Amino acid sequence: MKVAIATDGNLVSAHFGHCQTYTIYEVDESKKKVINKEVIENPGHQPGFLPGYLAKLGVNCIIAGGMGPRAQELFAQNNIITITGVSGRVDDVIQEYLNGNIADRGNLCDHGEGEHGGHCSH
Predict the structure, then answer these.
(1) How far apart are CA 118 and CA 122, in angstroms?
(2) First-to-last CA distance in the chain?
C-alpha cells in the first residue's frame, strides 16, 4: 500500500494542493512497517489533476491538513482514501497511521461555501 502525505518541510501541509512536496510511503500494514519512503515535488495545483496523478503513482491513501470537497470526490473516483484534519511531523504521522491512530478529523483548511478548488484561509 502507498500513502501520500501532503508535505511542507517535514510537516503535514494545511492544504494538499498547495504543498511543496508529497512524501510517499510504501507500507506493510500487517507488519506496521514503512518499506520505502520517497519525496516528490508537487507538480502544480491544477483543478482535477492531482488525484489522477497520485493514482498513477500507485497511491492508495492521501493524508493532509485540508482539502476541498471536489478534490475528495475526485480522490474517491480514483479509489484513493482521503484523511484530512491531520497535522504534525510526517514521519510521526505515518507511524500513527500504521498504529491505527489516524482518522479523518475534518479540514484544517477553511473552504468557503460553494468553493470547489479552494485556497486555505490562514
Answers:
(1) 13
(2) 33
- Which one-letter amino acid corresponds to residue 62? I
Per-residue pLDDT tens for 91-109? 999 999 999 988 766 654 4
Contact 94, 27 (CB under 8 A): yes
Q: How many CB atoms lie within 10 A of CB 75?
A: 22
What residues contact residue 82 under an 8 Å CB cut-off, 6+ apart?
Answer: 61, 62, 64, 67, 71, 72, 75, 76, 104
Q: Are 41 and 90 in contact (CB under 8 A)?
A: no
Mean pLDDT on 22-29: 96
